[in-house]
Amino acid sequence: MAAVQVTETLPRHVAIIMDGNGRWARKRHLPRQAGHVAGVNAVREVVRAAIDMGLEALTLYAFSSENWKRPAIEVGALMGLFRLYFRSDMNELIEKGTRVRIIGNRTRVDPDIRAMIEDSEKRSTGNCGLNLTFAFDYGGQEEIAAAARELARAAMEGRLDPETITPELMSSRMFTAGLPEPDFLIRTSGERRLSNFLLWQSAYAELLFVDTLWPDFGREQFLEALKQFTKRERRFGALPEAVA
Ligand code: FPP
Q1: Between the chain's N and C termini, which has fewer beta carbons within 10 Å?
Q2: CATH superfamily for domain 5-221+229-234
Q3: Contact between 218 and 42 (Cβ < 8 Å)
Q4: 19 a catalytic residue
Q5: Burial level of 1, CB count in 10 A (0-12/13-18/19+)?
């Protein structure tokens, strides 16, 4: 198999750090929550576009484990929007064949949100359309640490030979097990950081940082980003063919 490939195809798994809601609101002299409300519309547009394009997987960073440190009013607004979004959009998405997953620590969210998440996951288990994943109360380092803890426990109890721990085994212990690794990671709003998002999974992802604030990132911007991906050459550590 050639290690070098020019991607003329679409990515299989797009992951997005949806950033810039607060700045979008500030520019309009609105409360930060208004930026999150506008951000939900961008979520809708991008999810719809991903379905139309026939993408295999889309993962959206909706709430990081650090976001709990924000003022209670903002945390409450984000939780409320998550609830509203699930109640208003999930039935239709599931009917369209979307498979829904939520990755993160679900012990800290309100019980009704947990029930809603579990219900959507259960109802969409057999679906074969877009794999739509929301990272919610998610942190990448903690995800890796949890996988390490689980494997260490298995080794200590004699159920696992430490020599058999491979990257593939680690991947199978991540929340995203069963999904292809993200091959394209987009962050909006001009910041150039990963902010603890899919650290393990993004080892070979193409990164794209765009200046657009998330609420202004719609279908058109998403399609433009996908076009950027198709132009990139992916080498996975190998040399370009012309040099090799
Ligand atoms: C970052 O903007 C965005 C978030 C912390 C949350 C993302 C949430 C949404 C897009 C809306 C709710 C989502 C769903 C799925 C219903 P920021 O507040 O950090 O912006 P700033 O950096 O400009 O302050």
Answers
A1: N
A2: Decaprenyl diphosphate synthase-like (3.40.1180.10)
A3: yes
A4: yes
A5: exposed
Give the Å distances, CA to CA, from 230 to 7, 103, 234.
Answer: 5, 28, 10
Catalytic residue among 21, 41, 67, 112: 67
189 CB neighbour count, 10 Å cutoff = 21
The pLDDT confidence band at residue 240, using thresholds 50, 70 and 90, is confident
Pocket-testing residue among 26, 36, 44, ligand 1, by greatest number of atoms within 8 A of Cβ:
36
Q: Mind listing the pLDDT tens digit for each residue in 85-138?
A: 999 999 999 999 999 999 999 899 999 999 999 999 999 999 999 999 999 999
DSSP 8-state assignment for residue 71: -
How much is the mean pLDDT over the chain?
Answer: 94
Structure tokens at 227: 């076009």
Comparing CA positions, the residue from 191, 217, 242, 235 lying closest to residue 46 is 217
Cα 182 to Cα 176: distance, rounded to the nearest angstrom: 10
Task: Enter the tokens of residue 22.
Answer: 């607060």
Is this structure's pTM higher than 0.90? yes
Q: 185: Cβ below 6 Å to ligand 1? A: no
